[in-house]
Amino acid sequence: MLEVTDLNARYGRAQILNGVSLSLGENEVVALLGRNGAGKSTTIKSIMGLVQQTEGHVTYDGQEILGKPSHVICRTGLGYVPEDRRVFGDLTVEENLEVGRRAPRPDAPEWTLDHLYELFPNLRERRRNLGKQLSGGEQQMLSIARTLMGNPKLVLLDEPSEGIAPVIVEQMAQVIAELKREGLSVLLSEQNLHFARAVSDRAYIIEKGAMRYEGSFADLDAKPEVSNAYLAV
Amino acid sequence: MTHVLEVRGLSKSFDGVHAVRGVDFDLTEGEFLALIGPNGAGKTTCFNMLNGYLRPDAGSVRLRGAELIGRPPRKIWRMGVGRTFQITATFLSMTVLENVQMALISHHHRVFDLFSRATRLYVEQAMALLELVSMQDQARRACSELAYGDLKRLELAIALAHEPALLLMDEPTAGMAPSERIALMALTAEIVAKGGVSVVFTEHDMDVVFAHAHRILVLNRGELIAEGSGAEIRANPLVQEVYLGGGTSFVQEGAHA
Amino acid sequence: MGFYFAQLLTGLANASSLFLIASGLSIIFGVTRIVNFAHGSFYMVGAYLTYTLVTMWSGSVLGFWGGVILAAAAVGLLGLVIELTILRRIYKAPELFQLVATFGVVLIVQDVTLAIWGAEDLLGPRAPGLDRAVRIMGEPIPEYDLALIAIGPAVLLAIWLLFHRTRWGVLVRAATQDREMVGALGVNQAWLFSAAFVLGAFLAGLGGALQIPREAVSLQMDLSIIGEAFVVVVIGGMGSVSGAFVAAVLISVLNAFAILVFPQISIVLPFVVMAVVLIVRPYGLFGKPGSEHGAPEEPDQPLTLMSQRSAMVLATAVALLALSPAVAADFTMILLVDVMVATLFAVSLHFMMGIGGMVSFGHAAYFGVGAYGAAMAVKFFDFGMLPAMVFGPVCAATAAIFFGWFCVRLSGVYLAMLTLAAAQILWGVTFQWQDFTGGDDGILGVWPAKWASSDQVYFYVAFVLCIGGIWFLRRAAHSPFGYTLRGIRDSQTRAEAIGINTNLHQWMGFALAGGFAGLAGVVFAFSKGSVFPDSLGIAQSIDGLIMVLLGGIHALAGPIFGAVAFVMIEDWVTRLDYWRFIFGAIILIVVLLAPDGIAGGVRRLLRAVKGGAA
Which of A171, C367, C542, C567 has the smallest number of CB atoms closer than 10 Å to its CB? Predict the structure, then answer.
């Protein structure tokens, strides 16, 4: 469904990604593991068209999307949830969701406000509040809900558990499970191995802009030297 | 034992919400103290009051008896407090070496010198500091090209440039590999052991905290809820409830995987 | 009592016009982060178009209002064309490039307007049906003013509804906060930007159109309104439409009453108000922290000392310059002095902007104060040339110390705007204080001492002062002082954390840059024998910015290339008809083709050549 081949990305002179390849199937949850600065966010941003200097191939449903502007990529069915949430602070919760709203797509589940409020009850209570008045955890929920308003088929979740309390992290895990139940595919970047293991089907490990591991969590557990070398555990 | 730092009744509220309330603690000469707690517990607020970026509503912070509250960050630095940042802050348009030289130039009160060549000043001292954090090989690289973990080490070298009595480290190992983390914290511990400097740090990685901290303070909703050694903190039911979680919350248990 | 009420109404009517243009400027900045100098041009074109349409359909109410709306819509269309052809290509460029590009548009529009409508001021008809005055509390109030007073709030309400009750408005507000994120959510930012730009241009055109019955249409309308419009936007907070409304009312009403007490104050009053507001609220009345910066820039590369070969080239160039009087004609000497003055001015501006990260829209203030200081010392205190040459820069540095104290408390666009305000205040004082400064007539008879009166000798005086100044500033850039300044630019947090007093340091950097701009001004004054208020004007400040950007802000050598190129081009182009058009076009070409300036272009060329050889 999503196929990344030999992806290179750079910011100015600094080469961040060096021939990254990965693939993601229908209704699959895949974790992209690695520590800060390893290239997880850059991979996700490159897929989403948010990095200027990229080379290689990213195909979605067989269609090349690398080099296209991010709004076009979004319209093909990819949804992006940024690592720092990037909620519009001066817009109300409902207005934030409005920005994300797009027409339903035949091949993906349709999300309505009511359905999203069921999934994130806090947001219903706070729908008239401004984005900046929400707590960190609520902002994370809003950021996901906002992306779902676009009725994506595949969601790119950048560090969903970063900087939120462990209690909220548990809720995040449930949300991801719900997305899978609804038939979505999810590519999530994570530093927290244990969180990733609980929510994903398999994993990639990236380090210094290149893939170092691909496989199941069981295999990964059998090779402690891999996670020791590449993960911040 | 003498106290390097005495914090009393430190309080701060934003828009009527108590971010930090009545925090008291002491830091003994040569101690390695960790400040932990969930997000929004007030760790960063606390830190920013110690280093002068925020003015508390009430309370006092004394460094070897001298009051720090009310002084700007640069004065607090001159009194012997070094710091590293959670999100690294360095001079990106300079080389690694120049970043350390800047700290030395400032320490020696030469920032208004209009005639010397900045790059020729304090080269040896700066190199020595870089060696201390094993960054000497990267001395001539542009700071903007460094990997994240290296930036953190550079920050440590900068923070040690004026031989501080107290080092404040905000999440010092975030984003580093386990081996690097251990090396950095072991290095910090070594520097502490040599004497002369005490450390207060915040950290989310409980391995780092339990492995290195001499003593741990736990903040929740702006108040200190526990204090003690690693074993005491881990066994504390209140801390488990609000922060460490009951085992399902994906926080790593003890030893490395 | 009635009289004061009438003044209040006049103030409110003025506020409406000012609000229309400022709201458009604020919307454009909010969404696109472009400081649009061409906004005054939209205003002017709106007025000219309305003049033509309304005279054509003279007399009928429908003809008048139809003409107003049609003209504003046409300006909106002009805005779309400019956005699509120019701005769309430079959204990712540093903010100063965008500013200079829009200034290129200003120049082009000026000459096109001149070609179409001629140089004469045009007096339009009054609005049919609103051409009389009504008596309110015994005072005659023009009906048209009352209509304007109603139009301002009506437009504010319309904009508010548009922004809060339509999906498009929600998207615009979201884009004002985080453009990239809006794009990632599937919104085509490009059209959002275009639409915001069209709306802004429409509002500016409307503002100009509505001025027809109140003032003559002239070619000076663009730059005369833009300063005030900037001030309104800054006071209100960049990007805030309601802020712009409050600020427009504040300034216009204050002005309506202040002129009763002190008639000369209108030129400087808005700038004084802005200075006061920014000191109390550094982001304007309704602005937010973070709104002051445009697109983020990549960090500079570390400074390196010149390679031996570059040093040789430089030494040769300086030696050739020193020897030039032996071979060159007198008029070449004069041109070379102009080049050296411009270079020192540009280098001093670069010291502040490039090294110090403090963008100045009003650096000419210190150039002019230096020139006037020397001229007045000669005229009033009978100073000789050399003492006056010391006195001028001291005056300039003193002025920089005074205004710098306020400016360094701000950053980004707000700092730039405060420097502009400082320059406008000084310009206003110079312009109006006839007895002391000669006002518009300037000060004449500022000639060099007898021994230096030949073009050759004065060339050497200028050579020593300008090349010496440039050398000193380069040296300072490599000194701990300059490095500290760069450090503060990179990270104020880090600078504070290693014990640097950032405000004090930037303040001293500001003063040093001001002092050397003053030195350039002094050399300039004695080479021309006179000084005029122009030397502190917006145009002179922008010349400096163009030189720095033309050369490339990231290289120490940038301002040198830029100033030389600028003076050469200017010397050639100003002899031609429609030189503004040509000059504007050159600016646009440079901005679109070499966004890192001449120095950057040369460096890329060298790298390409070297790469090709290797």
Answer: A171
